[in-house]
Amino acid sequence: MYVVGLVRISVISSWEVAIQRICLFFVQNFLRSVYRKEYTLAGKLMAKMVGARELTFDVLKEWFVYFFQCTECRRCSVFCPYGIDTAEITIIGRELLNLIGMNIDWIVTPVANCYMKGNHLGIQPHGIVDSYDMLFR
Q1: Neighbours of 67 (CB within 10 A)
Q2: Whole-structure pTM over 0.70, yes or no?
Q3: Three-class DSSP category at 4
Q4: What is the pLDDT along the chain (137 residues), one digit of tens a residue?
Q5: Alpha carbon distance 104, 101 (integer Å)
Q6: Fewest C-beta atoms under 10 Å: which of 2, 16, 33, 57?
Q7: Which residues contact 27 (CB under 8 A, 6 or more apart)?
Q8: What kind and span of H or E run contains 9?
Protein backbone atom coordinates (compact mmCIF):
# COMPACT_ATOMS: atom_id res chain seq x y z
CA MET A 1 0.00 0.00 0.00
CA TYR A 2 1.46 3.36 -1.05
CA VAL A 3 0.45 6.87 0.00
CA VAL A 4 0.36 9.68 -2.57
CA GLY A 5 -0.82 12.91 -0.99
CA LEU A 6 -4.02 12.05 0.83
CA VAL A 7 -4.80 8.94 -1.22
CA ARG A 8 -3.97 5.39 -0.22
CA ILE A 9 -3.18 3.31 -3.26
CA SER A 10 -2.72 -0.40 -3.65
CA VAL A 11 -0.12 -1.62 -6.12
CA ILE A 12 -0.81 0.33 -9.30
CA SER A 13 1.16 1.61 -12.25
CA SER A 14 3.06 4.88 -12.37
CA TRP A 15 0.59 6.14 -15.01
CA GLU A 16 -2.25 5.89 -12.51
CA VAL A 17 -0.20 7.76 -9.91
CA ALA A 18 0.40 10.52 -12.47
CA ILE A 19 -3.33 10.68 -13.22
CA GLN A 20 -4.11 11.00 -9.52
CA ARG A 21 -1.59 13.76 -8.99
CA ILE A 22 -2.93 15.74 -11.93
CA CYS A 23 -6.54 15.30 -10.92
CA LEU A 24 -6.40 15.53 -7.16
CA PHE A 25 -3.89 18.27 -6.64
CA PHE A 26 -4.12 20.54 -9.64
CA VAL A 27 -7.47 20.54 -11.42
CA GLN A 28 -9.63 21.68 -8.53
CA ASN A 29 -7.16 24.40 -7.63
CA PHE A 30 -7.15 25.87 -11.14
CA LEU A 31 -10.63 27.29 -10.75
CA ARG A 32 -10.40 27.73 -6.98
CA SER A 33 -7.28 29.91 -7.11
CA VAL A 34 -8.88 32.41 -9.51
CA TYR A 35 -12.10 32.36 -7.49
CA ARG A 36 -10.12 33.14 -4.33
CA LYS A 37 -8.48 36.15 -5.92
CA GLU A 38 -11.69 37.69 -7.19
CA TYR A 39 -14.32 36.76 -4.61
CA THR A 40 -12.76 36.26 -1.17
CA LEU A 41 -11.45 38.84 1.25
CA ALA A 42 -8.38 36.77 2.07
CA GLY A 43 -7.60 36.41 -1.62
CA LYS A 44 -7.85 40.15 -2.18
CA LEU A 45 -5.70 41.03 0.80
CA MET A 46 -3.18 38.16 0.99
CA ALA A 47 -3.19 36.62 -2.47
CA LYS A 48 0.15 34.80 -2.33
CA MET A 49 -0.43 33.45 1.15
CA VAL A 50 -3.75 31.79 0.29
CA GLY A 51 -2.79 30.69 -3.22
CA ALA A 52 -4.95 33.17 -5.09
CA ARG A 53 -3.99 34.37 -8.55
CA GLU A 54 -5.36 36.64 -11.23
CA LEU A 55 -6.88 35.37 -14.43
CA THR A 56 -4.11 36.05 -16.96
CA PHE A 57 -3.32 34.60 -20.36
CA ASP A 58 -0.75 32.26 -18.79
CA VAL A 59 -3.38 30.93 -16.41
CA LEU A 60 -5.73 30.36 -19.34
CA LYS A 61 -3.02 28.46 -21.22
CA GLU A 62 -2.46 26.30 -18.15
CA TRP A 63 -6.21 25.65 -17.90
CA PHE A 64 -6.33 24.73 -21.59
CA VAL A 65 -3.52 22.19 -21.24
CA TYR A 66 -4.94 20.45 -18.20
CA PHE A 67 -8.66 20.60 -19.02
CA PHE A 68 -8.20 19.16 -22.49
CA GLN A 69 -5.72 16.46 -21.49
CA CYS A 70 -8.31 14.88 -19.23
CA THR A 71 -10.12 11.96 -20.89
CA GLU A 72 -12.98 12.27 -18.39
CA CYS A 73 -12.76 8.58 -17.56
CA ARG A 74 -13.73 9.39 -13.95
CA ARG A 75 -11.04 7.12 -12.49
CA CYS A 76 -9.74 9.95 -10.34
CA SER A 77 -13.11 10.22 -8.58
CA VAL A 78 -12.65 6.61 -7.44
CA PHE A 79 -9.36 7.54 -5.76
CA CYS A 80 -10.48 10.89 -4.36
CA PRO A 81 -10.93 10.70 -0.58
CA TYR A 82 -13.53 13.49 -0.70
CA GLY A 83 -15.56 12.03 -3.56
CA ILE A 84 -14.93 14.99 -5.87
CA ASP A 85 -15.85 14.21 -9.46
CA THR A 86 -12.95 15.85 -11.26
CA ALA A 87 -14.44 15.05 -14.66
CA GLU A 88 -17.29 17.45 -13.90
CA ILE A 89 -14.76 20.13 -12.99
CA THR A 90 -12.96 19.63 -16.31
CA ILE A 91 -16.28 19.81 -18.16
CA ILE A 92 -17.02 23.15 -16.48
CA GLY A 93 -13.49 24.33 -17.29
CA ARG A 94 -13.92 23.37 -20.94
CA GLU A 95 -17.22 25.23 -21.07
CA LEU A 96 -15.59 28.33 -19.58
CA LEU A 97 -12.75 28.14 -22.11
CA ASN A 98 -15.28 27.69 -24.91
CA LEU A 99 -17.12 30.83 -23.82
CA ILE A 100 -13.97 32.91 -24.25
CA GLY A 101 -13.12 31.29 -27.59
CA MET A 102 -10.38 28.83 -26.57
CA ASN A 103 -11.27 25.49 -28.07
CA ILE A 104 -9.78 22.63 -30.06
CA ASP A 105 -10.15 22.64 -33.83
CA TRP A 106 -11.58 19.13 -34.06
CA ILE A 107 -14.42 20.27 -31.79
CA VAL A 108 -15.08 23.61 -33.43
CA THR A 109 -14.88 22.54 -37.09
CA PRO A 110 -17.72 19.96 -37.08
CA VAL A 111 -19.98 22.36 -35.19
CA ALA A 112 -19.20 25.16 -37.67
CA ASN A 113 -19.86 22.77 -40.56
CA CYS A 114 -23.26 21.86 -39.08
CA TYR A 115 -24.26 25.51 -38.95
CA MET A 116 -22.87 26.43 -42.39
CA LYS A 117 -23.46 23.31 -44.50
CA GLY A 118 -26.05 21.31 -42.59
CA ASN A 119 -23.82 18.32 -41.80
CA HIS A 120 -20.77 17.73 -39.64
CA LEU A 121 -18.55 16.65 -42.54
CA GLY A 122 -18.89 19.92 -44.44
CA ILE A 123 -20.21 18.25 -47.59
CA GLN A 124 -22.07 20.61 -49.90
CA PRO A 125 -25.74 19.72 -50.50
CA HIS A 126 -25.17 18.93 -54.18
CA GLY A 127 -22.31 16.60 -53.17
CA ILE A 128 -24.68 14.62 -50.96
CA VAL A 129 -27.22 14.35 -53.78
CA ASP A 130 -24.51 13.14 -56.17
CA SER A 131 -23.37 10.56 -53.64
CA TYR A 132 -26.90 9.19 -53.22
CA ASP A 133 -27.41 9.12 -56.98
CA MET A 134 -24.22 7.12 -57.41
CA LEU A 135 -25.24 4.63 -54.72
CA PHE A 136 -28.73 3.96 -56.07
CA ARG A 137 -27.91 3.58 -59.77
Answers
A1: 22
A2: no
A3: strand
A4: 333 444 444 444 454 445 545 555 567 777 888 888 889 898 888 888 888 888 888 888 888 888 888 888 888 777 777 777 888 888 888 898 889 888 888 888 888 888 888 888 888 888 888 888 888 87
A5: 10
A6: 57
A7: 66, 67, 70, 86, 89, 90, 93
A8: strand 7-9
